[in-house]
Amino acid sequence: MAASLSYWSVGYCQCADWPQSFLSVSGVLAMAALDSLSLFTGLGLSEHKARETLKNTALSAQLREAATQAQQTLGSTIDKATGTLLYGLASRLKDPRRLSFLVSYVANKKIHTELQLSAALEYVRSHPLDPINTEEFEQECGVGVMVTPEQIEEAVETTINRHRPQLLEERYRFNMGLLMGEARAVLKWADGKMIKHEVDMQVLHLLGPKTETDLEKKPKVSKARPEEKDQRTTKDVVENGEAAGQTLSLMEQLRGEALKFHKPGENYKTPGYVTTPHTMELLKQHLEITGGQVRTRFPPEPNGILHIGHAKAINFNFGYAKANNGICFLRFDDTNPEKEEAKFFTAICDMVAWLGYTPYKVTYASDYFDQLYAWAVELIHRGQAYVCHQRGEELKGHNSLPSPWRDRPIEESLLLFEAMRKGKFAEGEATLRMKLVMEDGKMDPVAYRVKYTPHHRTGDTWCIYPTYDYTHCLCDSIEHITHSLCTKEFQARRSSYFWLCNALDVYCPVQWEYGRLNLHYAVVSKRKILQLVAAGAVRDWDDPRLFTLTALRRRGFPPEAINNFCARVGVTVAQTTMEPHLLEACVRDVLNDTAPRAMAVLEPLQVIITNFPSAKSLDIQVPNFPADETKGFHQVPFGPIVFIERTDFKEEPEPGYKRLAWGQPVGLRHTGYVIELQHAVKGPSGCVESLEVTCRRADAGEKPKAFIHWVSQPLTCEVRLYERLFQHKNPEDPAEVPGGFLSDLNPASLQVVESALVDCSVALAKPFDKFQFERLGYFSVDPDSCQGQLVFNRTVTLKEDPGKV
């Protein structure tokens, strides 16, 4: 690396009378604020609201301009109704170019209702190009439309006649808002107060004054509880986003107008979207390239493993494209070579495919490094970016000091940026910053920084790398993304997203934010998972106690269940934190129909049948799915020695115990035989080591109270039983867990049964094969399994533990 350049000199103005100059400026600003306060209260705003408005620089400037223009028509005094409309106009108008046009309509009383103002704002939002068609505008906004009292009377009378029988029956308990709404639908531009007055008058004429009965509270009608439905017939299993069942599938939630998203090419109709003189031409070119196709992208950083929150993002991005016959890119945001590893790229691709989605194309931010660099140079040329020498610690937070290099000459920044690329600055000595203030108040975000780390794809070609704030929107633009879907924490970056595309005059997609999906009793932060691994609390990223997607797969969660869970959560704007048992319920729904049955014993107790009816073992046909025998059978041996669960026998049973005990026989599932205890063989410690029983045909006597599972001539296997990793709902909350999440580990989160027994029908099972072990739960074959030694992970129990709900 070349020797580090010294900073370019910067002159600071230091004059002896600086405090006096500062006070003079402060005095001018204070006078201006007082003038604005007087102006705003003159519009009808309370003093408190006027002061709050002054805190918003953009709003106060726009309102001041609107009021000043209105005064040119109305004089110095503006009535409160007009002032309210001017405030609504200033606070809701996104395109300042239209301010003067709309103020003239308000000041001249052509727009005189809130309804007309809303229509006017909608019109200018959806028609960003000049010139405005005034005739069409006035028609859409009801300008000049006069609604007579006779028209209002007639419309209300028609509406009341339509509901007359119900009105006479319910009297004043009838929903009068329905009458108002129907009358307003007929007379769109009528005064709402006049309609309400006419409704009140005609209802009074029809019903007469209210009686004591009318004044009584309407009795609450208890809603009939819907009958419990068989879960097996109302499942909502989602595969690749498609659902079968009676509830709305993810595809139905995402299809068409469900989310009120803009149509491709109509980006400008989105609230908050910023238009420029070039917008419509760029959108025209965009439509020519895409053919009006919906385009989304899933843009993970390849520096960690995907978790349950990413499953929602995958379903939303791929699902929205699929639901609307579009395409979705899988784009790796590989702009931070220090933290990126090949295993993360592979794991992310695997998880997307595992959930059932196929990207239209796999791309990388690094595919566009040359173009991104060229655009950075262009941004400097346009005076919208500069090279800065503030250190990283000086840039942290939202109240960092303004850069003394913000106004350095363009040519100087161009030379320095080229020097950054050539490796003439050490890391942290120089950054390229963009000239904008973000929505969260952060000023001049960094676009490029120096990093002397080889990139996994470009090697040592680059020693400067773009940031997320710079890269993301421009990659979306290059790929002509129509809907850039991201979680709510990126809302503060929306302004920089629109600003950067417009500053470079390139196609600008629309960023839409939705709420993250979180789970209680979990941590999903990459940094914290690494801490768990380092502390030995978990084995790796795929430890089945975690909520990474690789961990859930290893535990045995079917991808259909995860997609189903995301569909049930829905696409919400608010952040969603769900209970793990709701996800587990989705898992049970899927596995109940897909996991074949087998029998296993975790704590074996040997049982010797002294009168076994055959000289050799019998072959027993066991249905793979007892509720649907058309799905086939598997065969297990039944011999004179079987093993049952130790908990299925008690010498001294408590009241209500229905399994094997003295004088209480039990049936052996699927065999057609009942066994009855004859002798309990105990060891030196007094513990029961085996049982001797006799057997009879189940139909040869009284039906037993219970049937238990068993194994004969079994395979020995290892079974891992998982519980929650953390003891508290919010392990990262200091108020709930003062000692930090590592102090909240559940010591019973993993129990290993090293010598469990399982029937031989599972002998050929492969990793990730899933079974229901009868009466125990759902289990999945772990990748640690090897020839002759199967390892099973308990996915979920058969029923939810009431203590977890």
TrEMBL record:
InterPro entries: aa-tRNA-synth_I_CS, Gln-tRNA-synth, Gln-tRNA-synth_Ib_RNA-bd_2, Gln-tRNA-synth_Ib_RNA-bd_N, Gln-tRNA-synth_Ib_RNA-bd_N_1, Gln-tRNA-synth_Ib_RNA-bd_N_2, Gln/Glu-tRNA_Ligase, Glu/Gln-tRNA-synth. Residues 595-694 form the Glutamyl/glutaminyl-tRNA synthetase class Ib anti-codon binding domain. SUPFAM superfamilies: Nucleotidylyl transferase (SSF52374), Ribosomal protein L25-like (SSF50715). It catalyses: tRNA(Gln) + L-glutamine + ATP = L-glutaminyl-tRNA(Gln) + AMP + diphosphate. Its EC number is 6.1.1.18. It is found in: Cytoplasm, Cytosol. Residues 214-237 are annotated as: Disordered. PROSITE patterns: AA_TRNA_LIGASE_I (PS00178). GO terms for cellular component: aminoacyl-tRNA synthetase multienzyme complex; cytosol. Keywords: Acetylation, Aminoacyl-tRNA synthetase, ATP-binding, Cytoplasm, Ligase, Nucleotide-binding, Phosphoprotein, Protein biosynthesis. Residues 37-192, 195-284 form the Glutaminyl-tRNA synthetase class Ib non-specific RNA-binding domain. Pfam families: tRNA-synt_1c, tRNA-synt_1c_C, tRNA-synt_1c_C2, tRNA_synt_1c_R1, tRNA_synt_1c_R2. One of its GO terms (biological process) is glutaminyl-tRNA aminoacylation. Its main location: cytoplasm. Residues 293-592 form the Glutamyl/glutaminyl-tRNA synthetase class Ib catalytic domain. Residues 707-782 form the tRNA synthetases class I (E and Q) anti-codon binding domain. GO terms for molecular function: ATP binding; glutamine-tRNA ligase activity. Belongs to the class-I aminoacyl-tRNA synthetase family. Monomer. Part of a multisubunit complex that groups tRNA ligases for Arg (RARS1), Asp (DARS1), Gln (QARS1), Ile (IARS1), Leu (LARS1), Lys (KARS1), Met (MARS1) the bifunctional ligase for Glu and Pro (EPRS1) and the auxiliary subunits AIMP1/p43, AIMP2/p38 and EEF1E1/p18. Interacts with RARS1. Part of a complex composed of RARS1, QARS1 and AIMP1. Glutamine--tRNA ligase. Plays a critical role in brain development. This is Glutamine--tRNA ligase.
